[in-house]
Amino acid sequence: MILRIVKMTFRENSSETFKEFTTSIKDTIKSFDGCLHLDILRDVHKPNIFFSYSHWVSEEYLDNYRNSAFFKTTWSKTKKWFSDKPEAWTVQKL
Question: 72-89 pLDDT, tens per residue?
Answer without folding.
Answer: 999 999 999 999 999 999
